[in-house]
Amino acid sequence: MELYSSLLGDGGDGTTRLNMIKWGFGWFLESPIWGYGIGNYRMLLFEVIGRESYAHNNFIELLVGVGIIGFILYYFMYFYVFYNLYQLIKKKVPFAITLFALFTTWFLAETGAVNYTSKMTYVLLGICIAYIRLNKSARLKRINE
Is the dihedral of CA 82, 129, 105, 25 positive or negative? Predict the structure, then answer.
């Protein structure tokens, strides 16, 4: 809860974070298609406040770094996982709801963290995609028998 109240800018560190998001969105609007290059949020922020820092927000960091094209390409993986895990949940496939809850929690954490550099993000994506593919493969095998 503290994360979200700080994002709303109710004093302390939240005001800085809210400004970092506002500045980042402004930079994104200046170069919306391709962005400034991965990791360049730091340099842009340095020009404003005199010190480097990351955006503390995966969405802003990616929008500034790789623009809307890179953002869509990156989050397509997430859409694939969310959609397919949801389909498995509707079919009452075991463990799908657990993975869905874990993945949703990880996704929500990206409002206050930069996860595209985290190995854990790709481990979690890999586990989810493997689970989805194994379930699709098993269903196809049952259909063909």
Answer: negative
Closest CA to 61 of 118, 102, 13: 118
3-class DSSP state of 111? coil
Domain limits, the chain: 2-144
Q: Is 121 helix (H, G, I), strand (E, B) or coil?
A: helix
Which of 110, 113, 119, 87 minimizes the C-alpha distance to 100?
Answer: 87
Q: Retrieve residue 118's tokens.
A: 């985290």
Question: How confident is residue 130, by pLDDT bands cut at 50, 70 and 90?
Answer: very high
Could you give the count of Cα atoms lying within 13 Å of 2 in the half-sphere of its Cβ?
2
Mean pLDDT of 121-134: 96
CB atoms within 10 A of CB 29: 10
Can you tell me the mean pLDDT for 51-75? 95
Q: Rounded distance, CA 7 to CA 24, Å? A: 14
Q: What is the mean pLDDT of the chain?
A: 89
Rounded Cα distance, 42 and 65, in Å = 10
